[in-house]
Amino acid sequence: MSELPTAIRAGDAAVGSWISIGHPAVAEMCAELGFDFVVIDAEHTAMSLETVETLARAVDAASGTTEPLVRVADDDPARLKRVLDTGVSGVIVPMVETGAQARGIADATRYPPDGTRGVAGSRASRYGRDLADYFERANDERLVVAQIETESGVEHAADIAAADGIDALFVGPADLSASLGRFGDTESLDTEISAVLDAAHDADVPVGSIALDPEDVERWVNAGFDFQVVGIDADYLLDGASRAKRTYEDAIR
User: Fold this and answer.
1) In angstroms, rounded to a whole number, what is the distance separating the alpha carbons of residues 131 and 25?
2) Facing residues of 148 across strands?
3) 165: left (phi over 0), alpha (psi -120 to 50) or beta
4) Alpha-carbon distances, residue 204 vs 12, 26, 113, 208, 223 (angstroms)
5) In what residue span(s) does the HpcH/HpaI aldolase/citrate lyase domain sit (predicted)?
6) Which of 1, 153, 165, 199 has its CA 20 to 30 A from that of 206?
7) Which residues have a Cβ under 8 Å from the Cβ of 97 and sit 6 or more positions away?
């Protein structure tokens, strides 16, 4: 039974790690570190649906209670359905810009009568063995996060947060800065971030973000974000390898 959706909705300070390397060992190692969740990125990577499911299995195989989320490529209902059928705890949907779009996403991720998600046996329901039970609890247990990363998304944040079935918002600082013509200048986003936080919190909806460097972690906490992704697997690898290389080069000078 998934506990992450309840924790996020309650505003618990959940912490996650971003998975962009499509190997199960990477997902399993992050899960072994005790993160509350990992986000498997199926938008900006070459990961197939089969890879997503394999990484979800790796997270589930680790000790502890880490749960997998998937950042999908878009809001296509068929894609959302198939990803949820892999048994992950929820989805993060990028580039959400209007309340109508958010309501469509909520509809596609819920079973009738609350939505239009198709029903079939899958890994999520133990391949159909628990389908009746899963059908009854799935709408409450799946986490649906709308990613705000454009100027339009900021403008319509209140409508997006108000959509029944959207559990949280997630600010994407890189794309948001690009949308505003200030790519990479995330320190200039205070006005937009405050607007999203105020709109969501007025609707009692939590908001998360990703820290693109260690300095952002404290900054996002102080800004008022409710949960965070605190790093990306590829960055961990690059930073560690670069540090080791510099250490050697300094030693032989």
Assistant:
1) 29
2) 171
3) left
4) 13, 34, 24, 13, 17
5) 16-236
6) 1
7) 150, 152, 153, 156, 160
Give the global pTM. Answer: 0.96
Question: What are 63's two structure tokens?
Answer: 């000790």
Q: How many domains does the chain have?
A: 1
CB 192 within 8 Å of CB 176:
yes
Give the containing element (helix H, strand E) for 55.
helix 49-61
Q: Is 156 annotated as catalytic?
A: no
Q: Which domain holds residue 45?
A: 4-252
Catalytic option among 23, 44, 156, 201: 44
Bond preceding residue 68 cis, omega within 30 of 0: no
Q: Which string of b and e fits 167-186 if b means at least 16 CB within 10 Å? A: bbbbbbbebbbebbeeeeeb
In total, the chain counts a number of residues equal to: 253
CATH number of the domain within which 154 lies: 3.20.20.60
State the chain's maximal CA–CA distance in angstroms.
69
Show pLDDT as tens, one digit a residue, over the chain (253 residues). Answer: 689 999 999 999 999 999 999 999 999 999 999 999 999 999 999 999 999 999 999 999 999 999 999 999 999 999 999 999 999 999 999 999 999 999 999 999 999 999 999 999 999 999 999 999 999 999 999 999 999 999 999 999 999 999 999 999 999 999 999 999 999 898 899 999 999 999 999 999 999 999 988 889 999 999 999 999 999 999 999 999 999 999 999 999 8
Radius of gyration of the chain (CA): 18
